[in-house]
């Protein structure tokens, strides 16, 4: 399962990236992060999921057939 979301925690003006996940594991990641926040192991703040997408540039070559799997 390819990564679909970048997971971060927003605390006031700061944002901390904590990982990436697929849609199938999004809920379990949310639950685990809430537990870690209660234990004080990760910053308390808003857990935020940002969609990710494949990008190709002049220096990063992409085969359009690879996008089918994403």
Summarize the structure.
With 70 residues, this protein is α+β, with helices and mostly antiparallel strands. The protein is built from 2 helices and 3 strands, in the order ββαβα.
Descriptive notes:
- With 70 residues, this protein is an alpha+beta fold.
- The chain has one domain (5-69).
- Helix content is 27%, strand content 30%.
- It contains 2 helices and 3 strands.
- It has helices spanning 26-38, 64-69, and strands at residues 5-11, 14-21, 46-51.
- A 3-stranded antiparallel sheet has the order 2-1-3, with helices on one face.
- A hairpin with a 2-residue loop joins strand 1 and strand 2 (14-21).
- The longest helix is centred in the middle third of the chain and has 13 residues, at 26-38.
- The radius of gyration is 15 Å and the shape is elongated.
- The model has no long low-confidence stretch (mean pLDDT 85).
Task: Draw up the topology in text.
Elements: E1 5-11, E2 14-21, H1 26-38, E3 46-51, H2 64-69
Notable features of this structure?
70 residues, alpha+beta, 2 helices, 3-stranded antiparallel beta sheet, 3 strands, elongated, 27% helix
Rg to the nearest angstrom? 15 Å
H/E series, N to C?
EEHEH
Distance between the termini: 8 Å
Oligomeric description of these chains: single chain
How many alpha or pi helices?
Answer: 2
Strand content: 25-35%
What number is the mean pLDDT? 85
Q: Low-confidence spans: pLDDT under 50, at least 5 residues?
A: none
Helical residues, percent: 25-40%
Largest sheet: 3 strands, antiparallel
The counted number of beta strands is 3
Total number of domains: 1
Q: What coarse outline follows from CA principal-axis ratios?
A: elongated
Biggest sheet strand order reads 2-1-3
What structural class do helix, strand and pairing data support?
A: alpha+beta
